[in-house]
Amino acid sequence: MDATPTRVQNPWGPRTPYAPGTPWPPRTDLHLAPGIAEDQVDRWVPAASVLHSNGDAMDIAVRQGRIVGVRGRAGDRVNRGRLGPKDLYGWQANASPDRLTRPLIRDDGTLRPCDWDTAMARITDRSRALLEERGPGAFGFYTSGQLLLEEYYTLAVLARAGIGTHHLDGNTRLCTATAAEALKESFGCDGQPGSYEDFDHADTIALFGHNMAATQTVLWSRVLDRLAGTAPPRLLCVDPRVTPVARRAEVHLAPRPGTNVALLNALLHEVIRRDRVDRDWIDAHTVGYEELAAAVEPYTPRRSAGICDVPAAGIEHAGELLADAERLLSTVLQGVYQSHQATAAAVQVNNLHLIRGMLGRPGCGLLQMNGQPSAENTRECGADGDLPGFRNWQNDTHVEELARLWNVPPDRIPHFGPPTHALQIFRYAEQGSIRLLWISGTNPAVSLPELARIRSVLAQERLFTVVQDLFLTETAQLADVVLPAAAWGEKTGVLTNADRTVHLVEKAVEPPGEARSDLDIFLDYAARMDFRDQDGGPLVPWHDPRSAFAAWQKCSAGRPCDYTGITYERLREGGIQWPCTPDRPDGTPRLYGDGISFAHPDVCETYGKDLVTGAGVDVTEYRSLNPDGKAVLKAAEYLPPHEDVTPEHPLQLITGRTVYHFHTRTKTGRVPELNDAAPDVWAELSPEEAARQGLSDGDLIEVRTPRGAVRARLRTVAMRDGTVFLPFHYGYWDTPGGHRPEGDGAGRAANEATVTDWDPVSKQPLFKTCAARVVLVARRDSLAQRTSTPAGSRT
Ligand SMILES: Nc1nc2c(c(=O)[nH]1)N[C@H]1C(S)=C(S)[C@@H](COP(=O)(O)OP(=O)(O)OC[C@H]3O[C@@H](n4cnc5c(=O)[nH]c(N)nc54)[C@H](O)[C@@H]3O)O[C@H]1N2
Ligand SMILES: Nc1nc2c(c(=O)[nH]1)N[C@H]1C(S)=C(S)[C@@H](COP(=O)(O)OP(=O)(O)OC[C@H]3O[C@@H](n4cnc5c(=O)[nH]c(N)nc54)[C@H](O)[C@@H]3O)O[C@H]1N2
Ligand SMILES: [Mo]
């Protein structure tokens, strides 16, 4: 079936209805460059999507050494052939004429092209001088959720045991830190319990702060196909906006932003009140039930209705759905993760599954979702704050395992305190203790909160910044050295999606100019720095993706994320879910089918934290609370958002996504089909709220907070009153006139306005709640008509 531009109009494609318990029918999506027919394609190269976390498997079409299209892989377990609009069109960005093709170094204030030797010498000279003068704590590495597993593992080893710094984190801190933390709090260890196949069996599906229709279009197609088939599932949606998910839900609750804990406590209250808990399961597999039951007791639907500003009857109806479910599937994403009680709320969804005994069986899926394509790998490999292989920094045996593996003394691996989270890394750079910041595969000058501050941190003279990217992004423009990276389709390695499915992405074409893979760049740095193990051998002895993968397999052996049964050859046949070992070669669809396996004090990745303060629990306390390694039911009191509305800032600002763009649009903004669908920033208010503010649809407005302002056209849409929504995709690189949003601060990036603040447990920033006001800049009638009608408002 040809994917004509109608996939911009209909992101989910045609329906293939199916019944519960039957396999999801395949549907092969294809898009080729105009004028190219399928039989003109020279080669099809296996790959998977990198523009979301779903891991949709595809083949890249290559003709005469160039990418000319993509086709979904019908045999793959994740997508059965389907692709979303970003994947169908997004590959065109690879060939964008403004790709970086040579390294750049800053001389006399200007970035100028140079060769690799010059650029790398500039970095290693500075590195050696800093190591000598200030030691490893002067180094910070800020990486991505979009590179490949082999690249993260290499970075983790060179940063932790080569430089010896623990200032290493990923943009996964902004993305899935809460997913990881919530799983660690409840199950002792990261690792997604559920499987996408649970969508084929579930009788009830609950989405918490997850606009799946826009952000995981293929998974939403799976839901739509179930809804179109016999015995469709019942749907619950919790989102302040009337998203496409909300429109299909039996119950839609639109809470005040930042009140998820109050709502979830009431839902737990209702399940317990209806006596729909699974006592045997609770006794066998959990600790903490009595405390949880007592904690949610006061959260009656009426009380929480007052806090969340939703009807009490709606909470009761949602409670009935959850209590009656026999096969409950829940997903959680940024509406929960990017708020002040992120982990506390996400853990309550775990609790829902634990008290109902709904884990490890078909249809009983719990998905603490990922967002980025390889966020899972960042976490597994320890390129975020945690140690590789989900090892516990407080457990000396775990640190010794790593030390043996890398052949270094244990004290070479920093583990004296909690890992440095991304916003703290920027704080250290601001204060001057971090002097070299190496940014790979992320664009913090658009994606971090409070951009005026981030720009000033990055622009400091005393901070040496390396940026490794495909394009001269807003961040790269502030760098001292810019390294041109090879993109997806130009390098080989694996990436693991949100349900633990590992896919192989192979090199289809050569990178442009002198661009190199991130793996080659990291290996080159390790070699030039001459990092050694304790016997004088090279610390990083691998040299290509395959040998890096083999090194990672050894690191993963015996840990929950065990890759020892996976090979590149096997991955060419299709995705495999970890853990996968030689005696379990088909992988593991669901965790915890036979009880909780990774929470034992000797195995667990963490001893846990207090859900309100984030204070760590120590090993003695954990051993006495949970000696047998069961799941921990942790309760949390609701606390109001940190920055609440005032007469001067009467609205709550939330930010998020549209279906057509990926993050800071470095790829999707360079693709005509996608860019034309949503070319510029807009702001959303409910029609009632707009009227109250004296505004109408199409007016040019400014959304202001104490940090800054965003100028945008107003769209009136169905959503909560009192709330304003901005998509966060738009930086300034293609602003008409190319202006940078300094001056009056009237920029396009939502993060001009967001606040520097984070969840105390996961340290994930609060992109979804701050106080704002809106002011009129110009009436619609006085402005030129828009040239195209953005379609993004639907999703
Ligand atoms: N098209 C597209 N797809 C993507 C991406 C992209 O940029 N574009 N990015 C990928 C990545 S990295 C990620 S992390 C995911 C994110 O995927 P999602 O989490 O689905 O996306 P968001 O739009 O950030 O937020 C989801 C919803 O949270 C709601 N929300 C806001 N505040 C609250 C609240 O207090 N409570 C509740 N319950 N809901 C609230 C918002 O209204 C919004 O609809 O998407 C992935 N997929
Ligand atoms: N206000 C607000 N802010 C948010 C969010 C929100 O909902 N609201 N969401 C947050 C979330 S969940 C996320 S994940 C972040 C995303 O924020 P970012 O990570 O900053 O967003 P991207 O635009 O994906 O940046 C990735 C960069 O890597 C480059 N790149 C792509 N592939 C490669 C590669 O193979 N190698 C290298 N070296 N570079 C590559 C791209 O060109 C791009 O510049 O934003 C966060 N910020
Ligand atoms: Mo994300």
From TrEMBL:
Family annotation (CDD domains): MopB_CT_Fdh-Nap-like, MopB_Nitrate-R-NapA-like
The species this protein was found in: Streptomyces thermocoprophilus
Alphabetic keyword roster: 4Fe-4S, Iron, Iron-sulfur, Metal-binding
Domain 4Fe-4S Mo/W bis-MGD-type: 42-98
Signal peptide, first to last residue: none
Cited PANTHER family: NADH-QUINONE OXIDOREDUCTASE SUBUNIT G, RESPIRATORY NITRATE REDUCTASE
Pfam assignment, any one: Molydop_binding
InterPro entries xrefs: Asp_de-COase-like_dom_sf, MoPterin_dinucl-bd_dom, Mopterin_OxRdtase, Mopterin_OxRdtase_4Fe-4S_dom, Mopterin_OxRdtase_prok_CS, Prok_molybdopt-oxidoreductase
Name of the protein this chain belongs to: Molybdopterin oxidoreductase family protein
Region (Disordered): 1-26
